[in-house]
Amino acid sequence: MGRVPGTLTRPRILAGGTIGVIGSDLARYADFVASLTILGKPDDTRLIYTRTVDIVGNCNTICRNYRGEWVLFLGDDHTFDPDMLVRLLEHDVDVVVPLCLKRSPPYDPVVYGGQNEKGEYYAAELPAEGLVEVYAAGSAGMLVRRHVLTLIDDPWFESHGGLNEDLTFCAKVREAGFQIFCDVDTKLGHIATHQVWPAHRDGGWHADIVLDPRLRLPLKRTLDPSLAPA
Q1: Domains located in the chain, CATH noted
Q2: What's the pTM value of the predicted model, to 2 decimals?
């Protein structure tokens, strides 16, 4: 997968679409609600909120009921900057995700560069900035254009063969001839009992653990997991 020259297209009017929130059976997160409230978006943006333990079903419900030219998939265990959606919309690509890390050690990026001979997915090599084509990614913050969803049959998301719904969807995207990108300049926080934010330093991607919104504690992925916040 190659680095894509130029991260943004020329300025244009952004068409409306749908934000699909994938709810869970867990406690609600105030940080997510606050992020969603101040998220910049086109005026004609619709919100769909699903809340069942069936994550696969939630994703497909969103795909069956969206309106507009795109869908932004969001889990309620994330936090993000106000310009995240606008930044993703300004990329003229089929599917694009912000950079998100797993919320538990070793905090690897939820972005994949391919599969090995055993069929296992391995982490993508990501640049320090810019837009890069990737093999697959988690659906957290994933922006999908209408033309992609139109050319993939229902169900869009499935979970089988040891693969979760994110990876099966990405496989369908590739099989349909579309590309998946990650904008590493646009970041998505992952909420557990703490927040996990991507941070590039020392030549690689690491995790910043946010115990308090006013303070970030740097934590390299090589740190003993037992020292991470519970």
Answers
A1: 13-193 (3.90.550.40)
A2: 0.78
